[in-house]
Every structure is written in structure tokens, then in C-alpha cells.
Model the fold of this input.
Amino acid sequence: MSTLIQHGTVVTARETLLADVRIEGERIAEVGPGLLPRPQEEAIDAAGAYVIPGGIDAHTHLDMPFGGTVSSDDFETGTRAAAFGGTTTIVDFAIQARGTRMLDALDTWMKKAEGRAAIDYGLHMIVTDLAGAGLEDMDDMVREGVASFKLFMAYPNVLMVDDATIFRALQQTSKNGALICMHAENGSVIDILVRQALAQGKTAPIYHALTRPTLAEAEAVHRAIALAEIAGVPVYIVHLSSEDALNQVREARDRGLPAFAETCPQYLLLSIDSMNVPGFESAKYVFTPPLREKENLPKLWDGLKSDHLQVVSTDHCPFCFEDQKSLGKDDFTKIPNGGPGIENRLQLLHHYGVNAGKITLNRFVEILSTAPARIFGMYPKKGAIAPGSDADIVVWDPKAEHLISAKTHHMRVDYSMFEGFQVQGNARHVFSRGELIVENGQYVGRVGRGQYLRRAARGGAWK
Ligand SMILES: [Zn+2]
Done:
């Protein structure tokens, strides 16, 4: 089976050129101007559109247990929604519960995904316990293609690990080449602020944000980077949300340290002002880190432009407003933490980034696809428009008008954080390993066609 994408503008992280792209089977066969269609070949006219590598969302939580409930998108609904928005690869998180083996956790998450995913998926492992065989387990994970681990400096008694555990995990990566990803917030300090707020009867959703100061994030980012520097290994900060935290990453990078960080659309486009709504409505914006004062937004955009931030992922972790967020109606600490976004990442970054002149088209491709592919050991299989790469390709119509709304989105959640946002630019055709899965707003893929993606150790963060 072969397909020719004709007359489009191929956009990669490095260049923009008028070229045709030939897909043979699951791979890209040729890229160049004036390729001639062959008999029996499917031709797609991409005139006026961009031909870009499929989006890679390196931070999603599908079918994830949290606070007595489970995130509302599973691997079937979540990956299909991702595909609609031009994302063709995700890296989700398996969770090692305390006292359990990582291979068992991996098995649990493989079963959640198997036979359901519409696009390819990799997994990070969340480490909560390195006692016993933990370090050997990490090496096992790398052999299984789980070449990155996430550790939490927040959520005491649930996910939080101490500095010794973080340091041992970092050191182990110098042997196995994995990448440590840090949820950087000082959980012990936040825990005290939370208790004090509750004791004063402050139970509304806004107190979730007000008990998590930006300095608690910056302190943890600083500590994570310092521990990685002592261990002599790279580190990646997930969902960085504030200028204070960004300053720590910039300082480290200016000194030449291999410190990397991602942010998310919600931190680039929404501020704590969004929580200024009556009643319990603001629970829709309860996630961690929380929304910040709006002064932070332009700083994060600057960070993306100047490569102090390398990646935009979503931290997609949806909970329905009606019957899940409501668990915390009388106590903000019981609101499941997370928000939906897997479908809208490219639309938002194209409109508010490229169209607004904040980032170039090439940078758009880099932060949404090529950089996460490199950093997480998938490049050039993913994240590239080049012969030999997987034919994960999006034909992006930069003029398509789209109104973001829970009424029309494909995520299994009853609200949108970006309700009413009118954007220009959307995916028109989406190919995953050569197979057309979205065409003009219709899903034409198959449940379960997505494959587990083994990722290589010593990816881009090590170079
Ligand atoms: Zn997350």
C-alpha cells in the first residue's frame, strides 16, 4: 500500500520546503519536489497545507486511578481524541505502587492499553519505592523500552519520595541511560499550607491554587537540578508552570547543565483569573501545579522561544465535572487533580503561538514533536519527515477554523478548559504508521491498531 501526499509544504524542526511525501507501508519512502504518482497509488492533495510529523504528547494519564476515582479517558477514547488533534504518539505513565515490582506495574498498564489504542504509545514508570530490588527494576524497565522514570517531590504519603530516593534513581541512570522526570513542588511545605487553610475553613477550589506557591515549585526545581548535577546526569522537569521555576532551569542551562523542561497549554494560556467564577465551577481548573498569576504567561512563551523550555505536553488527566470533580465539593483536597487537553495541544499552540507570532512554524514542530521524540528516545522513528521514519504525518490546514468546545470535542469528559476558544489551524489528514486514521474531522482508524513503542535509553538529553 502506498500513498503520495502532494503539493504540500513540508515543515520540520529545521526547514520549510515545498515537497511531496511518499508513504510505503508503515514508513516514509521519499521526500522531495515533484514526485510522480504511481499507478494504484492513493494521492492526497495537500496544496495550501503543511505536512508535519505527527504530534508527540509525552505526558498523559489515561485510565489512571487518583483519589478514589479513575481519569475519564481510557486508552481507546483518549488516543482517538489525540488523533483528532494531530497527535500520533503519546507517552503515558505506569505507576509502581509502594512495595510492588515495576514489571508488575508495567504489565498492568500494558493491559490497559492493549487492544484499545488508536495511535502508538510508550510508557514512563512512576517510581514510588526503591527499597528492595528497585534499582534492578529500573534496569529491567529500560530493557522493556521504558527509558524514563517520573518521581514526585509532591503528594506526601501517596507518591512523594525523599531526596535519597531521587538521588539514587538519578545515579542509576548514569548506568542505564534512562531519563529522570521530576514533578517538582515542595510537597512537605504545601502539605502544611493545605492543612492550615482547611483549619481556617478555606475549602473552596481556589485554595488548591493558593496553597501551592510558585516558590514551592522553584525550590523543588532547584533541588532536582542540583541533585542531578551532583549525580552528573540529565534531568527533565515536567509541567513547569511559573517564572520562578523557569528561572531555575534557565540558570542551570546557562551553566551548560543538561536540564530540560516542558510546560503545558494551560500554563501558557490560562491564569488563576480563570478560577474567579462562582460556586464550585473553578474545580475544572484544579490540577497540579495550579494556574498562576497572569504575569507568568509571557515568561513561559519567552522560555519556549529561547529554548529554556523544550517541550509542550498536555498532562492530560481528565475528570468529569459532574460526578468526579464533585468529590471535592466541600473540601478542595478531595477534588481529583487533573484537566483535559490531549486533543487541543496543536490547535492551541498553532493559533496562540504561530499565528500570534510568538513562535515560528519550525519551532512549533520542534516543541510538539521532534524535541519530545529526541529527548524520550524515539527519534528518528518518530518526530521526523524523512525516509525511513514512521509515516506518522499530519496534513495541517492552517486556515481551518475551529471552535473548541466540550459539545464537539472527542475527549470523554464533560467540560473543556478552553471552552469557546476560536482557533485557526487544524489537522485535516492524520496518518499513523502509514494508515489514514483521521480525515476531514472523521475518525477512520481502528480500535487497538496502536502499538507499544519501545524507547531507547541515552536519548537526546544525554547528547
Ligand atoms: Zn502528570
The two ends are 37 Å apart (CA to CA). Residues 59, 61, 315, 317 surround zinc ion (CB under 6 Å). The mean pLDDT is 97. The chain has twelve helices and 21 strands.
